């Protein structure tokens, strides 16, 4: 009887030791089985993404070399830029579809040649010390900053420029920026354009922009997110659409969220609390107060 009891206790002891060894890694890392479903959220926040909107456009004229240089100086992870096309087929960086607001010229971007666009002053409107800043091309910008900072490319009003997705893809491929990774992201408010780019160059991550006006009444629903998740890596909404619930649902659909455009500390803090993956901001220093940055 005593021998059988000892054998039984020995078996129980071995089982208890095995269970303790199984549980030990979880005890050390502080991760319990009940927390397993939240692990993806911790992974999302392991690296906060700081995107300088049109360059560090709070400090220098948007979409210019001065603004992009400032973004590098401020150690942003990415700068964002807007790409359109000149009358003679060159890819140029400017936000508005006309040059009126940000240069000393007038007229539609698509109706001006590269030479005409390059003759304009793209800096004085912001501050006289930036007089003489030029409208850059996409190619010269990629050449200047490749390896120094990552770039978020917005296809601006692509319906005005048929085939611009292919043209941007070719510029990236020329510079070996078509490899899988996160050196470049391409985004647009035109989701069909994003789909076209993704089909042309599936190795480059893409994002869908969501304006407040388009989603003010319905919000960004799970139906929208299921559709975006078919092709997109990022959902980048107006900051006023973002709350903790949206962030969780974006993550649940396997995407990240980078709200725009953040211009003050209170907005940044609210987005930090909501759990976003990064900020698109005119003032890159706003991201540095994030606890994971």
From TrEMBL:
<dbReference type="Pfam" id="PF03009">
    <property type="entry name" value="GDPD"/>
</dbReference>
<feature type="domain" description="GP-PDE">
    <location>
        <begin position="48"/>
        <end position="291"/>
    </location>
</feature>
<dbReference type="InterPro" id="IPR030395">
    <property type="entry name" value="GP_PDE_dom"/>
</dbReference>
<dbReference type="GO" id="GO:0008081">
    <property type="term" value="F:phosphoric diester hydrolase activity"/>
</dbReference>
<dbReference type="GO" id="GO:0006629">
    <property type="term" value="P:lipid metabolic process"/>
</dbReference>
<protein>
    <submittedName>
        <fullName>Glycerophosphoryl diester phosphodiesterase</fullName>
    </submittedName>
</protein>
<dbReference type="InterPro" id="IPR017946">
    <property type="entry name" value="PLC-like_Pdiesterase_TIM-brl"/>
</dbReference>
